[in-house]
Amino acid sequence: MNNQVFYNISKIIERDSKATTYKFALLRGVIDIIQDNSPFISFNGNRVQIPTGLLIEKWLLYYYPILESITTIPQINGATNLAFSSQLVKLISDYETRGGFSAFYNDLKNKGIPEDLQADFFELAKKLRDTITKMPMRYIGRSITNDYYSIFNFDNQPIKRKSRIDIETLIKDFGTFSIPFEYYEAFKILGSFINGQDSILFKWAEFSVNASGNNLSIDKVLNEVLRSPITLREIKESKKLYNEILQKEGKFYCVWTGKKITSLSETNIDHVIPFSVWKNNDLWNLLPSTPPVNRAKRDKIPTQEIIERQKDLIINYWGIILESQSKRFQKEIQVALLGNHSFDSWKKHGISQLQNSCNYLIESRGFEGWKI
To answer: HNH nuclease domain: from which residue to which, for each copy (predicted)?
Structure first.
């Protein structure tokens, strides 16, 4: 199996667009279908064909409880709704007096959707197919190549409404999609680890639930296991430090452009390695930039090239931090960047390891690189 495929999957999960949960639902659905060893999976040359209806079924199972929940669980950025939200909410409402989620799934799998709901369900299924094929299938892989549909292909055959609508209708009448065989193999081998059923965290939570005599829930344990001691961006010390520089020098410079800054209102404190990636509030990782540059960088990782280009300014700021917060700076940079190297070499090895860490995040973890 080609190692490049695993690297590509990592990049897709980390770097492809995250404006909605569609990407995660598509990957989760494909993996679940493959893990189920569906008999409808077929092979055609170097691609694997799967009925799109099986994905529609999975998306119904994923999003029904989310939209039914009394707790708002955001699935899309901004004020807009999921493309199929109104249709699915109506279905959920229709099933409130018919037995709810379980009754709906039993109808879909066995009895067929009730006659008075068939027209609405048919439109919902078409909307789901259109959303799946025109959104995540189109864009997944854009972090690897600029091409659309670089991994997923699908056929867009016309759909005719039948007198009976159930899972067989979805499978037979809603077309197929395909993925490269090497992705199928990767999902077959590692899919359960990616999706979580066999992941270490899930097994940890499952053990704790069993050990509690089932007095705890998986969700409760996972929430606790995933808690981090560092949950907020903390930049007060850095802001104070750069304000002192302004009072003394009257200026300092954007770490990424060298542009002169003369007031704190023109300053953002940038996490060199983004907080969302490392959750690191070390002083060495907090350096001044202009607001436009900070907005452009956001959660991207500085490349080796821009660090090399700006290393003198980075080292200059580290020296100021060392002078102001000697003990804290030494401890933090030793653990994060210097490792077994002597602190005497903090300039050389600090910059070198910063470049190595950023390059690892870009090349191996799939985060987006950034440079001006």
So the answer is: 254-302
